[in-house]
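haha ok so turns out i had the wrong file open the whole time. this is the CORRECT one, sorry everyone. sequence first:
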Amino acid sequence: MEPVNTSHTICNPITPDDLVNCLYYTRTKGNRFNIRPYIHESGIINKDNIQKILAFLPIEASASARFQQEDLIGRYYVTLKEALLEINPDIIERGGPVSESSFSAEDDRVYRGFLLFNSWINNSDVRGSNSKSYLLKDFSEDTENTINGWNYVEEQSDIGKSLSGVFSSGNPNRLQIGHDFLFTDSRHLHFKYFTLQIPKAWFRTTYADLLWMGKKIVKITKEDLQEILAYTHWPQFYQDAMIYKIQMRRNLLAQYLGISDLININERNVTAPSLSIPLCNEQSLADTATNMQLPFELLKKTYNESILVKNAKREGKCYEDSVLINGRVNDSSRSILVRLLRQYRHPSGLDRRISRYPFLNRLNPQNRLHDIPWDLL
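then structure:
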């Protein structure tokens, strides 16, 4: 294993346990994170397994001196169920944060319009350090904005605290729609939107700014969203739930901005998706295990032990596992498949997502804070 930079210190893990401890105890107490549930497989590299372990190693890395096979024999390896990699190619030169509260930000329509975009995706962390500037090599053919082949670009580089509630991310069950997202009175639009910081540029946002950004948002189609969410490798029903919520929020924005006619005619009325999967016999279990990328024996064992299945059989019915009900991912206590997928493939969670704030992960989701269930936060 290679040294790990935890931003506070550098440790040198040798075994998988070392890696777990390294990434936990070298963090500040409020940011400690246990990666053990994310470990899919670990062991020692040998001549019998090295080809399997390095099967997906990029060609460029294979030529590197760091990955010569003879030097890797005897070292530990870890494979992860979920991981996120940050690309850093040579054609990108990274700059510093982009201020949305000073310099000319208040006079920039893009930053003023970001109020609508971030409300739409419910991004609750829009601090300046989450926006970055870049120099991109040969990014555009626009020679007027190019210096020696480099283009200056600004972007929101970190929107990881979005598409959910306040304290989690990427959870359609927490992404509110209808009046719980946006409503209007005779004079104002009211966003039910909480963010840790409010850029000063947003205080100068005009209706024209909202309309300008809204016209860009309504151009994003269901097909676009499907292409984007496919990269998450979430279960298809989970992607469908997220697409439904995003579309509903987009359509409501368009309605209040008076631009619903710009939405694709086939997407103006969105139906909440539902999905129940029959698990009646061994063949249906085998088909579902293949489709959901679950081990067949694990699914079969869970099926045979489940009180949900026993109750259905007692009534003489085929057990149907409801993973998605009216656009809401079913609770893992009421769905075999949601529970198994969370345990085996998606440790970050499905019906509930792990929060970056450790104390929230220990709370009973039925508890309430200021009359708001933690389950919605």
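Confidence is low (pLDDT under 50) at residues 364-377.
again sry for the mixup
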